[in-house]
């Protein structure tokens, strides 16, 4: 019984330890993952007949300029696809585009971290 109690206490302590701060590269990767998720959402909206104007109107509410630039670029790319092309296999289209945007973001040079809320 003492061993079980000790094990439970040890697990609880390990779970309560502070996480190490993220490196700038880890922060940027997290941001880019978030941009990929946003790309997925924007593609989903496009596949479900949300207009480009509505998407741009929503994007213009973003306060962080870096994020706003990324999102407006994603909107332009998504709405350049013919609707028929992205609705033949909607999930595959979203996943492929999400991956493309994530990789493009990671490869983008940056000198400061954007102030963003994860998507």
Percent helix: over 70%
* Number of spatially distinct domains: 1
Please, what is the oligomeric state? single chain
Number of helices: 6
Distance from N terminus to C terminus (CA atoms, Å) equals: 45 Å
Largest sheet: none
Which H/E pattern describes the elements? Answer: HHHHHH
Strand percentage lies at under 5%
Coarse shape: globular
What class do helices, strands and sheet pairing give? mainly alpha
Query: Kindly state the mean pLDDT as a whole number?
Result: 86
Radius of gyration: 20 Å
Uncertain runs with pLDDT below 50, 5 residues or more?
none
Strand tally: 0
What keywords describe this structure?
119 residues, mainly alpha, 6 helices, globular, Lipoprotein
What this model shows, in words?
The protein is mostly helical and 119 residues long. It has one domain (24-107). It is 72% helix and 0% strand. It has helices at 2-16, 24-47, 52-59, 65-80, 83-87, 90-107. Helix 2 runs parallel beside helix 4 (65-80), helix 2 packs antiparallel against helix 6 and helix 3 (52-59) runs antiparallel to helix 4 (65-80). The longest helix has 24 residues, at 24-47. The protein is globular. The termini are far apart. The model has no long low-confidence stretch (mean pLDDT 86).
């Amino acid at each position: 019984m003492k061993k079980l109690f000790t094990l439970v206490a040890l697990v609880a302590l390990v779970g309560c330890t502070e996480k190490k701060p993220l490196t700038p590269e880890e922060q940027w990767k997290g941001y880019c993952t978030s941009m990929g998720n946003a790309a997925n959402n924007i593609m989903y909206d496009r596949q479900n007949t949300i207009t480009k104007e509505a998407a741009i109107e929503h994007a213009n509410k973003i306060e962080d300029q870096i994020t706003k630039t990324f999102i407006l670029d994603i909107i332009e790319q998504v709405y350049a696809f013919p609707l028929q092309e992205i609705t033949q296999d909607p999930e595959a289209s979203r996943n492929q585009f999400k991956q493309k945007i994530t990789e493009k973001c990671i490869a983008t040079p940056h000198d400061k971290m954007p102030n963003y809320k994860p998507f």
